[in-house]
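Quick start: read one record
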Amino acid sequence: MYTLLKQEGNARRGEFKTVHGTVQTPAFMNVGTAAAIKGGISSYDLVDLKCQVELCNTYHLHVRPGDDLIYEMGGLHRFMGWERPILTDSGGFQVFSLASLRKIKEEGVYFNSHVDGRKIFMGPEESMRIQSHLASTIAMAFDECVENPSTHEYSKHSCERTTRWLYRCKEEMERLNARHDTINPHQMLFGINQGCVFEDLRVAHMEEIAKLDLDGYAIGGLAVGEPTQDMYRILDVVTPHMPQNKPRYLMGVGTPGNIIEGVARGVDLFDCVMPSRNARHGHLNTWSGIRNIMNAKYQKDDAPIDESCDCPTCRRHSRAYLRHLFKANEMLAMRLAVMHNLYFYNTLMEKIREALEQGRFSEFREKYSVLLDTRI
């Protein structure tokens, strides 16, 4: 259940209650694709890094170790030692991005596993069954993520199929939640808005799927290579048609600046691999912009990554030490860097919520929207 606590312009400060705890929104969901954050971060670390929701990947977990195994182990929460909410994506994006050989049909998608090449079929019912086995807090509907650019005609047909698939997802989830042997009978379902960069398709699709009165709604198919301004334009057009009383999730976004701009347009939830991926290459977020720790000027720099940060890495280690770890190819480099970036993102959301509560979000946006995405 979503409760809107405060609004400034289109920006929303809310609370989202789930069976695994209440999420303070706007929130960033930390991406643990295969039930782990890349860079050696455990579920127990995530609590200290202020993570509220972890996102795991349906397709990857289905391929390895298998959703049947995770079900036998008591579901994802028990398997990975994480007690707070988990969102599982439907596998749709991976099917379309990883599978070079795939056939999209009305019943679903036929494709080959990227791990061992074995043939896999995934449709709405299969995706719901896998996610029910995983027992996540929130399951995402199975959709087609259209390539950009795509024609208006193809995008329209794709939206219509995604809508038909959504009805099937809803029906199957209701059936699964009613079973006596389901680990999480309170599993929620989010629908996904598609329509490429076509405003008419986006609005029509959003109005259509809003009729299903789902637990939340996501905007998919953005941040896939289109110009940033196109993403903002679509958000401006779509969010007014999203239900006020449901959480809104912008999938796969993004930079700190993207998140601030997304919040300004009425989005509540975000996820992205960017903070952990960038950290593993020495690109670190700070309140002054992005710092490349590999630069020679940090060789003898005794200061923390960010002097205003109190993450575990900044409290204990210097830029010089972190740079040395990267240059020496020590695993610890990645762990310390990822801890810092995730803490930064979760603190950014905390500060956004605080600014919204105090009615000064527009000032916060003006100060940080461009700055945080600028290289130092």
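The chain has a mean pLDDT of 96.
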